[in-house]
């Protein structure tokens, strides 16, 4: 099983980024997928989740209305569109599959 995140980087407050997580080694469409994040000195927190067929999504209160999770089962990829970014969104963002595996993470830094 492999999960590879991409799309992180440095962005100014109010900006946008789109994270991608390419999955392989398991039946992608069968499992829910989630994005977590971990800021320096803090625990890992759930940001967003999406069901296997994509019909159900859930979000942390802190990102509702700003972040959108989606998936393309034909491409075995899950996405996190992040808009109106704030400095407090700065963290390493991790992709997770309900099959029980984590990606290596991608750094998102929101700073002027």
Characterise the protein shown here.
- The protein starts with a strand and ends with a strand.
- It contains no helices and eleven strands.
- Helix content is 0%, strand content 52%.
- The chain is globular.
- The strands form two sheets. Strands 2, 4, 5, 6, 9, 10 and 11 form a seven-stranded mixed β-sheet that branches. A four-stranded antiparallel β-sheet has the order 1-3-8-7, with no helix packed on it.
- The mean pLDDT is 96.
- The chain has strands at 2-6, 9-11, 17-24, 33-38, 44-50, 57-59, 67-72, 77-82, 91-97, 101-102, 106-110.
- The relative contact order is 0.33.
- A hairpin with a 4-residue loop joins β7 and β8.
Task: Describe the protein's topology.
Layout (H helix, E strand, L loop, with lengths): L1 E5 L2 E3 L5 E8 L8 E6 L5 E7 L6 E3 L7 E6 L4 E6 L8 E7 L3 E2 L3 E5 L2
Parallel strand pairs: 2-11
Antiparallel strand pairs: 1-3, 3-8, 4-5, 4-9, 5-6, 7-8, 9-10, 9-11
Identify low-pLDDT runs: none
Percent of residues in helices: under 10%
Shape: globular
Instruction: Return Rg in Å.
Output: 13 Å
Overall pLDDT level: 96
Number of helices: 0
Helix-strand string: EEEEEEEEEEE
Would you report the number of β strands? Answer: 11
Secondary-structure-based class equals mainly beta
How many strands, what sense, and barrel or not for the largest sheet? 7 strands, mixed
Please give the oligomerization state of what you see. single chain
Tell me the distance between the termini.
Answer: 37 Å
Taken as a percent bin, the fraction of beta residues is: over 45%
